[in-house]
User: Fold Nickel-type superoxide dismutase maturation protease from Candidatus Planktophila limnetica.
Amino acid sequence: MFVSRFGTVRVSGQSMAPTFNDGDWLLVWYAQRMQIHVGQLVVLRRPLDARAEAASLFIKRIAGINESFVTVHGDNKNASTDSRQWGDIPREEIIGRVIGRYHRGKVSG
Assistant:
């Protein structure tokens, strides 16, 4: 059975600036399986510890793909934790695709 749904996620932090900023709200298509390509913006569910008892969501851009793993980067490399620190991530950690921004957060500066 294939399950998909639309939802939202709020951007927290500056790892995807200038594409998305802290406080932006994004529309996301969540799906168990999806075709992915380099350059695509995705939502990841990453374990916070080795036991995977807790996880956090991250918004990243796909920088590379192989059969089982994906390389992801934040657009703001100076403020992003991503494959440069984690290494490649399992494809199963990709849980959604960013469709677009529907509410822009306040940009300081």
Remarks:
- The chain has a mean pLDDT of 88.
- The first strand starts at residue 4 and ends at 10.
- The first helix runs from residue 83 to 86.
